[in-house]
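JOB MANIFEST
job_type = single_chain_structure
chain_count = 1
residues = 139
[input]
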Amino acid sequence: MTSMDVDNFSFSYNGVEYILWAWKGNYLNLGAGAEMGIYYGGGPHWLVDTNLAMQMTLSLNDQNGNIFYWAPGYDTWWITGFDPNTQGRTAQELTATYTVTFNDAGMYEAFYDAWHKRYSDKGNIWSFNDVNLSATLIF
């Protein structure tokens, strides 16, 4: 059984369109998992630029607690994690927490301006730390 939830968060900076794309769910044969990546350019085909890499962390929880926490400690454009021992969870049973720490203050400010007042049915799902230029999504 595969059960996925996806959301994306677009913003513009210096005339370029960017998007943070987040997924979570039960990945066929991989178990419970989540991932986030940063892309640029616009649809229908967003592009990868490894120069956009930044510090990212990822945590995944279910009703029993933490499934995994991943903080690679190096810049990356895409973070992902899976637990093959946690099978059969629906996306709604999982809570993923992603933190991205922008290397560029201007890019952080552009993302902040685009998303700090946007709400979902869960409330304000992004929190921001202006000191270290990080944004945290609970999804």
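[summary]
The chain has a mean pLDDT of 94.
The CA atoms of residues 44 and 93 lie 30 Å apart.
exit_status = 0
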